[in-house]
Amino acid sequence: MKTTNNNKFLSALRFEPLTKNNWDKFVELFGNKGACGNCWCMFFRLSKTDFEKGKTNDGNKNAMKQLVWNNQPTGLLGFYEDLPVAWCAFAPRKDFPKLQKSRVHKPIDDKPVWSVPCTFIAKNFRRQGVSVALLKGLIDYAKENQIKIIEAYPTIPTQEKLSDAFAWIGLYKSFERAGFKIVDRTSQNRPMVRYYID
Question: What angle do CA 88, 90, 94 make, to 5 degrees?
Fold first, then answer.
């Protein structure tokens, strides 16, 4: 879907945390592929063995559903009218074991941070500013919930055009436009960025 009035479209977007009440919308957004390769946003939350095993028989989908039913923070859904168009994982960093074991994204301090390890935008809504709007909505949500530091690990593409399949960790330029700052460059192409809420 290409919108004729982009500002009006972006201002009409709304964001809310994933809960039992909107679970069906999450499933609708992720579709038959679970966003990508039956991930269901469990890649950072599981060991490699458990994640691979979960790609069959709805394992990863059910694991995500269990988190939601247990009222664990999982992420934010973005809507245009009643249509789910965007998602970003958002939870305390400690909830993502793969981040805890990362060699290039080790904690830079002992402050409590919430991480954004991945994002997903519906195919027909890409390249229209939805990612930046999603991150701004996330900042608003963090402010409302007394979350002080948002951390992410986006990519700086080394080529002109990056395949959508590789953009799931988020593009640095989107985070930059939303006000995030680089806080660590252990990885040149995957910087750690943060947004500090006053």
Answer: 140
Q: The tokens of 133 are what?
A: 């709007």
Q: What is the mean pLDDT of the chain?
A: 91
| Secondary element (H or E) of residue 23 | helix 23-30
Burial 147-159 (b: 16+ CB within 10 A, else e): bebbbbbbbbeee
- Residue 139, Cα to own-chain centre: how many angstroms? 13
- Per-residue pLDDT tens over the stretch 90-118: 999 999 999 988 889 999 999 999 999 99
| Segment holding 184, helix H or strand E | strand 181-184
Q: Give me the domains of the chain, ranges plus CATH numbers.
A: 13-196 (3.40.630.30)
Name the pTM for this structure: 0.90
**How many whole angstroms separate alpha carbon 109 and alpha carbon 103?**
15
Separation of alpha carbons 170 and 154, rounded Å: 5
Our measurement of the distance from residue 46's CA atom to the centroid of its chain's CA atoms, rounded to an integer in Å, reads 16
Is the pLDDT reported for residue 184 higher than 50? yes
Neighbours of 72 (CB within 10 A): 14
9-46 per-residue burial string, b: 16 or more CB within 10 A, e: under 16: bbeebebeebeeebeebbbebbeeebbbebbbbbbbbb
